[in-house]
Amino acid sequence: MFFEELGIYYEVHGEGKPLVLLNGIMMSTASWIEHIKILKNYFQVIVYDMRDQGKSSKLSIKYDISVHSEDLKKLLEHLGLKKVNLLGLSYGGQVAEIFASKYPEYVDKLILSNTTYKVDNFLASVGEAWKVAAKTYDGESFFDLALPFIYSKTFYNNNYNWLKNRRKIFKELLTKEWFDGFIRLASSNLNFDVSNEIEKIKCETLLIAADEDIITPISDMEFINKKIKKSEMVIIKNSGHAAFLEKINIYCNIVKGFLI
Amino acid sequence: MFFEELGIYYEVHGEGKPLVLLNGIMMSTASWIEHIKILKNYFQVIVYDMRDQGKSSKLSIKYDISVHSEDLKKLLEHLGLKKVNLLGLSYGGQVAEIFASKYPEYVDKLILSNTTYKVDNFLASVGEAWKVAAKTYDGESFFDLALPFIYSKTFYNNNYNWLKNRRKIFKELLTKEWFDGFIRLASSNLNFDVSNEIEKIKCETLLIAADEDIITPISDMEFINKKIKKSEMVIIKNSGHAAFLEKINIYCNIVKGFLI
Amino acid sequence: MFFEELGIYYEVHGEGKPLVLLNGIMMSTASWIEHIKILKNYFQVIVYDMRDQGKSSKLSIKYDISVHSEDLKKLLEHLGLKKVNLLGLSYGGQVAEIFASKYPEYVDKLILSNTTYKVDNFLASVGEAWKVAAKTYDGESFFDLALPFIYSKTFYNNNYNWLKNRRKIFKELLTKEWFDGFIRLASSNLNFDVSNEIEKIKCETLLIAADEDIITPISDMEFINKKIKKSEMVIIKNSGHAAFLEKINIYCNIVKGFLI
Amino acid sequence: MFFEELGIYYEVHGEGKPLVLLNGIMMSTASWIEHIKILKNYFQVIVYDMRDQGKSSKLSIKYDISVHSEDLKKLLEHLGLKKVNLLGLSYGGQVAEIFASKYPEYVDKLILSNTTYKVDNFLASVGEAWKVAAKTYDGESFFDLALPFIYSKTFYNNNYNWLKNRRKIFKELLTKEWFDGFIRLASSNLNFDVSNEIEKIKCETLLIAADEDIITPISDMEFINKKIKKSEMVIIKNSGHAAFLEKINIYCNIVKGFLI
Fold first, then answer.
1. Which residue of A145, A153, A217 is in closest CB contact with D145?
2. Which chains does chain B touch, 3 or more C-beta pairs < 8 A?
3. Is residue D171 part of a domain?
4. Global confidence as pTM
5. Ramachandran angles phi, psi of A55, nearest 5°
6. Chains B+C touching (3+ CB pairs under 8 Å)
7. Helix (H) or strand (E) holding B112
């Protein structure tokens, strides 16, 4: 479906308590296909592409990540949802932190997964690396350059053929427009720092970390855990920044268990 | 309720898929009171005291931990349960490993929590320390000697009054009979080693570890994780060997999410 | 040799830059025998028993751990040493922190090994456990109760016979006087907290931690590392709180490398 | 100096027991400038550029990493050195492992730093990423793409200006020839696997790992540690794959302490 006002593509699956999933920077609604199959049996699952992602409109000018938090508010109003469960992953976790700090009344329970509270020099440099990779405008080169640090070493060693196939899909799907959108997204959070905001989050919060996540390591997640009053944290073993994809079943089980 | 044949005290709470909880060595059915409140809304929860625990009969002679696996089989038969979800914690996890290796047909899904596959020299020495502590036949001394290594450093620092109160309860409740039963239990698993058995476990298995667990550390759990084909592992942050009690909500949520 | 004024037994070995080793709570000059053999080839090694340890006098009344820092100052004056390298281990590390904060002019380079900046509720409870164990006035019971958490799991599993032999030595050597002294030592640091003092330490500092140290874990050492300006930290793999004894060679090598 | 037979550039600094330093893949003799200043006071330090590195000759055809092990043997013979201390870092550690397994008689003590025993799919993918980055033939792009995963997050956050300056140096120094050599080097170890060879290493061995090393993590180093009989392992805290450069002092101290 399409939210015309902002040009946002979204999907609604299943019935029950609404659960909104916020994409990581390289993701789209399509990334959640397996999770939706599981979660729609328990929740009304809402996925959408942020502007500059997937099938949503392009933003074209320089913007701040907080744009997506305002977009989310408008989307919820459009959908008539006054209170939702919110799961934000990586970049989507940053959006969720901004949103839950500013609009706490909209959030029932919050899940922050493989994300951070601040783009420090290290993460800015990772973002820069990704932008340089994107500027090749070649899906395979982008895959080769950016992906080894997103999946865990364990996953690379056990799923090499799956990854090689995914590399081909990148080649086919990533267009010039996609890369330009990605570059804008990767430029939007260089000043992201909610270290003094997240203590405003009062709702029950679950943090999902991964032991081999080198982009947003356990120490980043633990900082958030200490700041949010009603948070608890679990670590998925033998998985990386893409734990949601590396360990689909256990990931969905943890989400289910927290929300049901 | 009481299973007369073996002298086993048990309780059944709620309705739904049966879920049997196997106590750790110092525990009894009473240890699960908060978990039962939560889990009985989703499952038929069965808790029981192993012989030499709580309100069950005493064994009085030297025995091997596998006795409890056979007892479990008889209890399930008595209850007319042909297939159950099984959660074994610490010593109860060892019983669960023996049971699930020998009687796989009885186990639907398996949860192993804060447990090991082998009593090595370190664990034998911990067991010896606990026996020496038990031989004081004094609840407070036992608490002082044995408990600092069961809860996490984090929990000790955040829940000191709760712990001090628990120390008084130990004083009141732990009788000569309890200590003698405990000593027998702590003597029953010195030869426990299922490192070559657990690969027979084919059912979906969830491993729950804790990052500050120094009795059965993550490395022990990871050994099990590698051996069992369909296992996955989560680590509860900022908790110790008694994670089930230190983090009741997140613990129950993980259990729920895996079994629902 | 004997420093009569305070009744302190001490030994001086070798020549070169003076290096003073401060014992952990259960230790004495005898604990360093292997280290002295190595280190005396490079340094003038000074070991001594704090009052209430080994061959030094007993203190008999309740006192604060800072007593030992003042004693150290007097001993150095007695020996005519104006500036020394200082290595403090566990309880001795606490003494070293007090001393180096208060008398920085005496310290050339500082090594803090397997120690903490604060006795929190967890460590107070460990101390209480040790006192209860000491009150058995039996070396073997004390060994059984206290030692499993001092050596690493790895060391227990690889050196069981050595440990069993050490248990016998405890039986022979630990007298009523020793236990009473130990109990006073273990009572002296309940208020120890130098979290706001150690930033005064300006000398080059090396922190030696151990990955299986559950008494003073890496997180405690890292807190110190962050507070002291010119500090660096190494972790000895596969060792516990007694890393100095579990890994004598690598331990001495790290010390040598830092001081030479 | 120049070893004409192979076209290998080398330098000899200081006097004493010979210590040969083997470069990581992106390094050259120039990378050790600060270490040489320290270590030459204790050892005869020999550094050299492998073929396809720095000032040495180019290899031009496809080859296996073992070439460099044979080159090392010839260089030692040329220098008349029958037994040396050997420090191999990352790629140089792989060369050292091949050399010490095949020519144990040449090695006195061995130091393996931030290296692995096998190029698995993950490391092959990292190598592929580096090759794609090298094919930009642009020093700044290469820096942006490859470096964020070589230094630790901690180092990135504390030394951003130093890194930005280094980026400029990359721009100036990395030529077409350098990139082509790098690509050949990065292609030479795709089949590297000494998991069954390294148990032949009988000399005293020190393993230096880093807690934030995501290229050759602690688990890789621990595998080596378990295989080599007389090995011990230390971990440098708050450093990454480039620990040797991030923590020059502590790194040299550990080396000194082990060899003196």
1. A145
2. A, C
3. no
4. 0.97
5. -95, 5
6. yes
7. strand B107-113
